[in-house]
Structures are given as structure tokens and as C-alpha cells.
Amino acid sequence: MKNKLLLVLLLCFIAPVWAKQDPVEVVSYYIPGLVNQDKTGSLVDMLNKVNEYTGVEFDLTLMPTRRVQKAFSQGQLFGYFPELEENRVSDSCRTANIMQKKIIVITRNDSEKITEVSQLEGLRVGAVAGYSYGNEIVKNEKIKIEYVKNDDINVKKLLAGRLDVIVGDAHSTVNAIKQNDKKGELRYNPDEPISLLDVFFLFQNNDKGQQMCSQISTALERLRSEGALKTWFDYE
What is the pLDDT of residue 77? Predict the structure, then answer.
């Protein structure tokens, strides 16, 4: 009887070790090539690798960008990715960088080459609503930005002469260009960005959030040292 009692007590202490932890809900949004609607893409591959290195199972949900940011600021979401410093809620916890977002410029071949933000002033500039391009661009009152819902629309507008230039990134925007039959009429260079922006996970600033930031940051640094972030995002 005494041995049985000891066995029961022992099981009570070690049961939590055997119990599977609940998945951690993390939210993202549609970014062609990075986070696709079917939950594939380079950022999803990265998340799966972070899962492997941390042992944390993530439950990924996709929502529109603005809804994600608003819900997080109201404390309705635990964490999401990717995000930039300019959109970061002040009382939040961020991880190490996933990558640096390269803001590039796309023009028609017959247009002037643009290498600096100041050259956008006075032009018809296409961008995607909900994407971030850096305060140097969006808060410059001399730069007039026309927002649409996706990169595909901007590419078509640029080819039709309804825009002078597109600002975008070296992933989703370039993917949209590559899918267009007239891509040869456009000029861009992913290796010549006009701006670089840090990209990371964002979590609520509580004990659980800080723990998650620490675990994910350690995994990201490992992925960076292994060259995986270079392969996925050209970040080293």
C-alpha cells in the first residue's frame, strides 16, 4: 500500500513533464512568396524551423495587416510577425531580426534610374495598403503615394503609365513582377535598396511574451549563423 501511494505521488509530480504544451497562437498576413494564403512561403518555412529548434508548436493564423496591428495594440493578440520598428507598439517585446526589409524602386526601362528617396518627390508613387515602407518615405510630404490592395495592381498601373514608380520589397513585389508577361519592360535591382528596415516577431510585454521573445531570438540567431536566413531572406 505504501509503495502504491509513493507511485501515485511520483506520477503527480512528473505528469506535467509528459503533458503536451498547448500550441502558441501566432498571427501573420498574406505576403506573396513569404506568407501565402495556403500558409506556405519562406517566412512559414522559417517559423517551422523555429518550432523545431525551440520545441514550441505554433498555431499560425492569417489576418489582414491592419486588423492584426489593431488587435495586438488592444491586447487581443499574443504575438505576430513580421513587423517593423515604426509600427511597434511601445509596450511590447520584439525578437532578434528575421531579416532586413529591402525597400526597392521599380520603374519602366525608359524612366530615370532612382537611387535615393529624395528622387521620389513629385512622382506618382505606387504602394500597397498595409505594407510598411519606412517613415523616410511615408512621412515625406513631398512624396505622393497612391495605395492599392496588392503588388499585382501596381505592376499593371506602372506598365500602363498610370504610375511613375513603385516602391516595394525584394520579395513580394519582385514575385509580382516575375508573374507579369511584360516584366522585361521594368527595371529594378534588389541589391540596390533605397532603405533597409529591421523585421522581427512582436509579442505582448508580459512574462510569457518575454519568454517567447527570448526563445525565438535564440533560434533566429542559430538560423542566421547556419546561413538559413541568408538563403531565405538574403540576411546575414
Answer: 96
Cβ(113)–Cβ(187) below 8 Å = yes
Parallel, antiparallel, or unpaired: how do β-strands 165-169 and 124-128 relate?
parallel
Measured CA to CA in angstroms, residue 139 lies from 126, 169, 188, 219, 228 at distances of 15, 18, 23, 34, 34
Residue 15 has pLDDT above 50, yes or no: no
State which amino acid sits at residue 74.
Answer: Q
What does pTM read for this prediction? 0.73
Q: Tally helices (H) and strands (E) across the chain.
A: 8, 10
**H-run or E-run covering 145:** strand 144-148
Residue 180 buriedness (CB in 10 A; 0-12 / 13-18 / 19+): middle
Q: Which amino acid is at 153?
A: I
Which string of DSSP letters, residue by residue, matches 118-172?
GGGTTSEEEEETT----HHHHT-TT-EEEEESSHHHHHHHHHTTS-SEEEEETTH
For residue 82, say if its preceding peptide bond is cis, omega within 30 degrees of 0: yes
Phi, psi angle pair for 63, to nearest 5°: -145, 160
Is the Cβ–Cβ distance between 232 and 44 less than 8 Å?
Answer: no
Is the pLDDT at 17 greater than 50? The verdict is no
The span from the CA of 72 to the CA of 141, in Å, is: 28
Give the pLDDT confidence of 27-58 residue by residue, as tens digits.
Answer: 999 888 899 999 999 999 999 999 999 999 99
